[in-house]
# Entry
Amino acid sequence: MEAIVSERVTIVVPCYNEARRLDVEAFNRFVTQDLKRQLLFVDDGSEDETPEVLISLCARLPEQMRVLRLEVNHGKAEAVRQGLLKALQDGADIVGYLDADLATPLDEMARLLKVLRTSGALVLLGARVALLGRDIRRNALSHYVGRIFATAASLVLGVVVYDTQ
# Structure
């Protein structure tokens, strides 16, 4: 498999009531470091100022940052699905997603894109798994609730599921 040389990369960022948590400057840096990168923010029916914040953010670099507005909240999975479909319809060669709170830093997304470009892989998945030499910080309660959910999913599906995202 030959790596795509002039690919368009679109990263979907699902948002629901994220106005106070969006790191506007970090998103700006991410797209300006590599002009082939695009961000598609999917506002999932937010009830706060998120739509206004996103419109303002995307107005800075409209060729690289866009907003897809879902009028009604459908949940994160549907927001991601709608965003990925839109990105592919608009001609993206590589699509991915990350959380609006940047629990996975944008630098890590850039690293993963580099791995994808150079490896010839068709799919690349990331998970926040504690490995030696890695600094992963997450809320303990969220971690344990996630573990319970993943275990339940494993039992229901009959397959081992570590990360349900």
User: Anything to note?
Assistant: The helical segments are 24-33, 50-60, 76-89, 106-119, 140-157. The first strand starts at residue 9 and ends at 15.
